[in-house]
Write a structure and sequence with these properties.
By secondary structure, this protein is α+β, with helices and mostly antiparallel strands. Helix content is 17%, strand content 27%. The strands form 2 sheets. A 5-stranded mixed β-sheet has the order 2-1-7-5-6, with helices on one face. This is Molybdopterin synthase sulfur carrier subunit.
């Protein structure tokens, strides 16, 4: 099963600068474990205590996984995952 994972700039140090990598798994949790096996350290930047970090947004085919089954969201061959860190800050 091949799933494309789009990596944000801030996490590309874990993927040797690659903008997208392939992974596999039946759920998002399994996919992240698979990515960790090849890109050590990336999973800890996305997951904390078995759940997605509060300020990291993950999309399955452009749909926020928080509105699906979160880290237990089912995946199928050909899906696309996009990881986006939340952006905040500044003054008014």
């Amino acid at each position: 099963m091949a799933i494309e994972v789009r990596i944000p700039t801030i996490l590309r140090t874990y993927t040797d600068g690659q903008k997208a990598v392939e992974g596999g798994g039946e759920t998002l949790a399994e996919l992240l474990t698979d990515l960790e096996s090849r890109h050590t350290g990336i999973q800890a930047r996305i997951v904390d205590g078995g759940e997605l970090r509060r300020f990291v947004n993950v999309y399955l085919n452009d749909e926020d996984v928080r509105f699906l089954d979160g880290i237990n969201t089912k995946l199928t061959d050909g899906d696309s995952i996009t990881i986006l860190p939340a952006v905040a800050g500044g003054t008014v």
